[in-house]
Write a structure and sequence with these properties.
Helix content is 49%, strand content 19%. The protein has 14 helices and eleven strands. Helix 7 packs across helix 13.
Length: 453
């Protein structure tokens, strides 16, 4: 076998692989054995016909074609090893000639990652202060959530619950025709269209109102049209809000004896929530800053393969919903090529992120051990109630274990990034440098740092 490394461009090696007749023999022999098991030749028992008979029976071309299915991946793999290429992903192989075989292979190589000056990035961890107003806003929401509705005899206001008849048309086509439906009149209620709630404000009990509503351009059914509505209000209810006092705190049924205790717990919950949000902002900001300062050269074939995976995931989701990809593409008015083109940038960003994280993991020797995996599985199981055993079984599958491994590894890399951008890594280094030295001969118990994984 003769392998020629023609060129390397965009992290892709272009190889030409030429086989001699004798190189083909092992593959032809195995192909003959497979064919012998599938066909019956008069005068011979199944699988016992000699090769010359089988070759004459099916033809040399059929035998070679059968051999190519085994030959192409094996020979390509051998060529990659022969050229000592740091290959990653599946090569793209073109068969130039079959007998004897001449192949051209494009081999994606491991991406090159330059993390830039990421260790110099500094981002402050900014935790927003929880104010008394924030606490009162939560209490107000609790008042609304727990308040019963009571009928009123007045015009509709925001935050009312109305019972009404609704008839709606767009260019003569009926889009709504319901009697006695309930509707929450709220400024942030965008159903069925923005501004609909505002049109109901001021309608008297028993009154009928007709009005038009502009349909947004992004509406999936009647974009950019004008909807004509006829509304009759039959009942108006408002919330019977409780007084904010100790009795209100008790009636929540969560063990609060006083309003002060309730307010303190709300404050603590909001502080914890803000700390989590601040941590999330810090992590996202750190990763974004590292990504901006990094350059990653990814082979185009690897991006194409990622698009393939994304298309496959999309097809699986559609299949679970009872739809095929062709029908979906027709529904959204796109071709498969257009969809792949749209996914290309997303695939590139996803791979760039993955390889940046991988480079940081390698630089900081981030590893995941068996205890980390077990701990993560148990965390999922603990939050699954009666399905905990089922969760453990599901996560015992190789693919699930691989996903958990990657999840934990990513989290550990992010933790390393947070130490860097907040300067905590430098503080740790200073602490080590400032540690007292131990003289030779001093009776000191040997200590081993816990492995960082």
């Amino acid at each position: 076998m003769n392998v020629t490394h023609e060129e390397t461009e965009n992290r892709q090696a272009h190889l030409q692989i030429e086989l001699q007749t004798e190189d083909m023999e092992p593959y032809l022999e195995r192909a003959c054995q497979r064919i012998a098991q599938r066909i019956r030749i008069p005068g011979f028992r199944a699988g016992k016909a000699p090769r010359r008979v089988i070759e004459n029976y099916v033809g040399r071309e059929s035998l070679v074609a059968e051999a190519m299915g085994d030959l192409v991946p094996r020979v390509t793999s051998e060529a990659v090893i022969d050229q000592e290429l740091e290959a990653i992903g599946t090569p793209s192989v073109t068969i130039v000639q079959e007998d004897p075989a001449i192949l051209k292979a494009v081999v994606p190589l491991r991406p090159i990652v330059d993390l830039g000056s990421y260790k110099e990035i500094r981002i402050p961890e900014e935790v927003e202060e929880v104010s008394a107003e924030d606490v009162q806003n939560v209490i107000e929401e609790l008042r609304k959530t727990n308040a019963p509705w009571e009928p009123v005899e007045r015009a509709v206001q925001f935050d009312d619950l109305v019972t009404m008849d609704i008839h709606g048309e767009v260019e003569g086509e009926i889009i709504a025709d319901n009697e006695g439906i309930t509707y929450l009149v709220a400024e942030d209620n965008q159903n069925p269209f923005p501004g609909f709630s505002a049109e109901l404000v001021g309608i008297e009990l028993g009154q009928t109102k007709e009005f038009n509503s502009d349909v947004p351009e992004d509406d999936p059914d009647v974009p950019g049209k004008v909807a004509e509505f006829k509304i009759t209000v039959h009942e108006i209810k408002q919330r019977a809000l409780a007084e904010v006092d100790d009795e209100f705190a008790k009636e929540l049924g969560q063990g609060f004896e006083t309003l002060e205790a309730l307010e303190e717990q709300i404050r603590l919950d909001l502080v914890a929530q803000e700390e989590r949000a601040a941590r999330s902002r810090l992590e996202e900001g750190a990763l974004e800053a590292v990504m901006e300062g990094s350059t990653v050269e990814i082979p185009p074939l690897l991006i194409d393969h990622e698009v393939d995976h994304m298309m496959e995931d999309q097809q699986n989701q559609l299949t679970r919903g009872g739809m095929q990809m062709d029908a979906y593409l027709e529904a959204i008015g796109k071709t498969e090529e257009e969809m792949r083109s749209e996914l290309h940038e997303q695939a590139n960003e996803r791979l760039t992120r993955a390889w940046v994280l991988n480079a940081i993991a390698e630089e900081h020797s981030v590893e995941v051990n068996a205890d980390d995996i077990t701990e993560e599985i148990e965390r999922f199981a603990a939050n699954s109630g009666d399905q905990s055993d089922e969760i453990r079984r599901a996560f015992s599958e190789p693919a699930a274990l691989d996903n958990i491994n990657q999840m934990v590894r990513t989290r550990k890399v992010i933790e390393e990034l947070v130490k860097i951008v907040t300067g905590r890594e430098d503080e740790g280094a200073l602490a080590q440098n400032d540690a007292p030295s131990i003289e030779v001969g001093e009776d000191v118990e040997e200590q081993t740092d816990e492995e960082t994984t």
